Amino acid sequence: MLSDAIARSGLTLERVADAVAARGGVLAVSTLSHWRSGRSMPTRRGSLVVVGHLEDVLGLESGSLRLLAKPAYRGGRPTVESRMSPVAASFSKGGRVRELLGEVDMRSDERLMRLSQHDRCRIGPDRAKESLLVRQVLRATEDGADRFVIAFWHDTSQPLPQLVALRGCRVGHVVRDPAAAVLVAELLFTRPLECGETIVTEHELRRLAPAPDGAEDCYGRSLRHPTRECLLEVDFDPDTLPVRCEQVAEPENHSQPATRRALTVDSDCRVHALANGFGPGVVEIRWTWS
């Protein structure tokens, strides 16, 4: 809502901050930028007063932004609602994913900036997903970040995969709901990070269950936070190649139209999609077999 309201106003972030100051508030342009992108939330009492000025500056109904900001913390701890992008919540398992996220420690989630997300999905000769390798580059925005949380789900009831930590992390608390086909897990760093420190992690999901109809036709990444670089790769079996592939990037809440781009399978039987400065939203590679 805030991002859309600023865009409609035609004002720069600097002019918005100046208008808030003219009403007696103190708002740094960097803070406003973080609120707009979703990297941080206005949760302190003084910040909520500033949000009231923002509503006035942007011509919004009184209380509309504050209503979104207030639930972000209860007793000083982020709630699940503040951590889970509407993108993820919109999927068929969104409600159950939200419930399981409430059973793990996500306090570090707001202390991490996603610099790079690299997913490599392997499709076997039976046209089913075999494995998913995930590499991330993260930067701590505050002292103390010591883990990140992943969520995986099937749209239909299927066996859950095996989670393996490969580099820069180890598997912590894992919550599984086999009936709903949802898995949520903590991946713990070797030590807490200091503000500004970066870390590279790798983990893999193995023994992915085949699609119910026997053939996969897409792989996607739901980004809950703005990410500087999101790279998706799909490796196909040389004897079983798709006839068409495309990249689809869709911002959350359909705030902007989805973008589409045709992709070509290379000589290594691989296709990739790159999104820079994207999120929250969904990036997908889609393909057709015939």
TrEMBL record:
Record protein name field: Uncharacterized protein
